[in-house]
Amino acid sequence: RGQAPVVMFLFARLFLPIVMAIVAFTVLMSIASIEIPANSRLMVILVAAGIGFYMPNVLVKNLTDKRRAVITQVFPDALDLLVICVEAGVSLEAALTRVAADMGQQAPELAEELGLTTAELSFLGDRRRAIDNFAERVDTPGVRSLAVALTQSEKYGTPLAVSLRVLAQENRDARLTAAEKK
Question: Where does 88-107 have alpha helices with state H?
Fold first, then answer.
């Protein structure tokens, strides 16, 4: 979070093509024993620069996919804990805080997001916006379903525990189906 990752990404996106082109040029010039036409050398240098240009995007995509997979894997467990807390009469903010603390060892990514959502629920005037921010940051189907359930429960006054229990069962079934598919 913050500006440093954005600056590092932009720096890599700007200078990595140049570095890759220089490395390719150096390697091609050091291989004097093989005769390579000039246009082929230029093509290799341009391909290396292209790889350097797209490499930061690929790395960021891989990191986000891994993070999303971890969150998707542990999300049903977090929902079960949330159901237990809500059925015990704990407020949503306190329940999210408790789940974040309990999930900290198993999935620090989810714990961080839940903690941030708790802070937004406390500081933002619009609870719906804080829940939507959570769904946008995590961007998994289970979290989007949770955001919809929380929003509808708050809007219509329906019991939160019932909708969370159904949502937890659906997420467990989806995790089981994914495991069977694998």
Answer: 92-103
